[in-house]
Write a structure and sequence with these properties.
The protein is an alpha+beta fold. It has three domains: 69 residues; 285 residues, Beta Barrel (Porin); 34 residues, no CATH class. Helices cover 17% and strands 46% of the residues. Helix 1 runs antiparallel to helix 2. The radius of gyration is 26 Å and the shape is elongated. It starts with a helix and ends with a strand. The N terminus is likely disordered.
Length: 393
């Protein structure tokens, strides 16, 4: 019978609980030996072990319910909520590293891109980190992300990030001028955020991001304010880490602008009436894509020259079905990084899913330079390539 790392961890926790004496008066040398063994085996406090056990159980139950609910909905042929939110660019993976492991990064979150995946992770970087990433998105759309993290001390960090989605100018076409009026218009999306994270204990971290979101098309635009919240808990067993985050908890978006301004006759039934006033067409409000993530990661291989990190994330969005992201990262001498993963497992009507990537890092003059690449399959929408450069110091 093969034992998983999680089973081994839970077994150790159970052994420790069994070894705890029920009385302050030890009755024999065997009791003393059992108590000593329990203390040696313990790497965390009693309360930390209990918390870890409850969290693991909660994640297991939640993931099972999430998967069952998702499969049940698909079997019943229920209509999904796809296309019912604005600011879809907020759902695009921002970094090649996270995208290469299938978007399963919420429990890893150990570079500047943690501002997107799980802001709690930046408090454990212990150094400053700068990242710039570019994605050749679908239909020749450009997607860019920049992030800066400043480590204040061993327990506190702040950060700032900018996300933009751009496309080239397009011809204005009308019914009367289907080949174009000679005018051009543009469309795009933008988000900027500031973040703070803190280690509450040596094992538990929390972080928050406040951000401004804007989308525009020609003369119209819509804005929103939102919060991201994240937590990270390290159990100390094979670097087993539990991460949770809520992204894009904010206000709804409503388009407004010059194209919504009209002239309206308030009394059209009155002959000769010229009571025309300036009016504003009120468009519908749309929510932004709220996303809840919970994930676990661990290092089953941790040698001097070789390391392997695996991560599994469960996702619950407000505009799609539940899904799982899985991925792994192999690290050779902290110089070469090989990554692979699969995103959107069990998601209804998904396109593609396979993700691959590679990265290199080099230490020079007290700084660490990084470069990453990712390739993602999007089915009929074809392939997406991502690139990034970064520096830690």
């Amino acid at each position: 019978m093969e034992w998983t790392s999680l089973q081994v961890s839970m077994c150790i926790m159970s052994m420790h609980l069994e070894l705890e004496p029920k009385s302050e008066n030890l009755q024999s040398s065997n009791d003393l030996k059992a108590r000593s063994t329990g203390v040696v085996m313990r790497k965390m406090t009693d309360s930390s072990r209990v918390i870890a056990l409850h969290i693991v159980r909660a994640i297991a139950v939640s993931s099972s319910l999430l998967l069952v609910a998702s499969l049940s909905a698909q079997e019943k042929g229920e209509v999904t909520k796809v296309g019912t939110t604005a600011a879809q660019f907020l759902k695009i993976d921002v970094s090649p590293r996270g995208a290469a492991i299938g978007g399963a990064f919420v429990a890893i979150a150990n570079d500047a891109s943690a501002l997107y995946w799980n802001v709690a992770g930046i408090s454990r970087l212990g150094q400053n980190d700068v990242l710039f990433a570019h994605t050749n998105w679908i239909a020749d759309i450009g997607f860019n992300y920049g992030a800066v993290v400043v480590s204040l001390d061993e327990n506190n960090a702040v950060g700032a990030s900018i996300t933009s989605l751009t496309m080239g100018d397009m011809e204005v076409r009308t019914v009367d001028f289907p080949e174009g009026t000679g005018e051009k218009f543009s469309a795009g999306s933008f988000a900027a955020g500031v973040s703070y994270a803190r280690n509450l204990t040596d094992a538990f971290s929390i972080g928050v991001t406040a951000k401004y979101i804007n989308e525009h098309i020609w003369h119209m635009s819509a804005s929103s304010f939102a919060l991201d919240l994240g937590t990270l808990y390290r159990t100390g067993f094979h670097d087993f880490t539990i991460g949770m985050s809520i992204s894009n908890f904010g206000t709804k978006m409503r388009y407004a602008g010059d194209d919504a301004i009209i002239y309206y006759n308030v009394n059209p039934g009155h002959f000769g009436s010229n009571q025309t006033v300036v009016a504003d067409l009120r468009t519908d409000e749309w929510p932004i894509p709220l996303l809840f993530r919970v994930g676990v990661s661990m290092q089953p291989l941790k040698a001097e020259e070789h390391r392997l990190i695996v991560d599994v994330d469960a996702l619950h969005p407000n505009d799609n079905t539940e899904s799982l992201n899985v991925g792994a990262e192999y690290i050779f001498r902290d110089i070469l990084f090989i990554r692979g993963g699969y995103r959107a497992l069990f998601q209804q009507d998904r396109q593609g899913g396979l993700s691959l990537g590679v990265g290199v890092a080099y230490d020079i003059a007290g700084a660490r330079l990084k470069a990453d690449y990712a390739w993602n399959d999007f089915g009929v929408l074809q392939k997406v390539q991502r690139f990034s450069i970064g520096i830690q110091f």
